[in-house]
Model the fold of this input.
Amino acid sequence: MASTLIQIEDLIKTFPIGKGKFTALNEINLSFEKGEFAGLIGPSGSGKTTLLNIIGSLDVPTKGTVSVLGKSVSDLSKKEAANLRNIHIGFIFQTYNLLPVYTVYENVELPLLLQKYSTTERKTKIMKSLEWAGLTDKVRSRPTQLSGGECQRVSIARAMVKEPEIVLADEPTANLDAKNSHHILRTMEKLNTELKTTFIFATHDEKVIQYLRRKINLEDGKVVGDEQITNK
Done:
């Protein structure tokens, strides 16, 4: 039986501009089940990143409800929202967001330091995550010593180290060439299959789109298409 992880109902998000307002999301109704490999597709300004940020509890709706793992993001305190992100959600950004003074190991360790794991438990999880990402030989390297593809794989390892239920990926291949893009997408596809992690991408990259099993098209803040891909 399918398990609904994310429920979005009548979502509206506006931002003030001068004396007026800009509607970034307009009457969005969507749900996501456990194990989906889905993409929010649309041009810049279509609302993809705003929707991803609200799902990730980095922002809240202006109107409507967004429930993640049974919790309304509008009702969460700052501490509760942080706990939701720290434990249940992994983030992958196009700019990697790695700390340059830390090694690969230390960057991947960061999400675990916010939880009550022993040093031994952290090491086991970190090495497992680096093995998934094919980076066990880069443990002591720093981001400045890595290629763009390797940096993005570190960010995947960091997102997956706590084995979250949901991973949100915002244009994860934007700074990568085709070879690295496909390597990273195959890695995420493998993790989705093996761990049943729900992946939601914000993208307009055709390389990403060909891997998706669900395509949600956004245009001017509205859902204009929602297609399940059955031949994957």
Q: What stands out?
A: The longest helix spans residues 178-195. The first strand starts at residue 4 and ends at 17. Strands lie at 4-17, 20-33, 37-41, 63-68, 71-72, 89-93, 166-170, 198-203, 214-219, 222-228. The helical segments are 48-55, 78-88, 104-113, 119-132, 148-160, 178-195, 206-209.
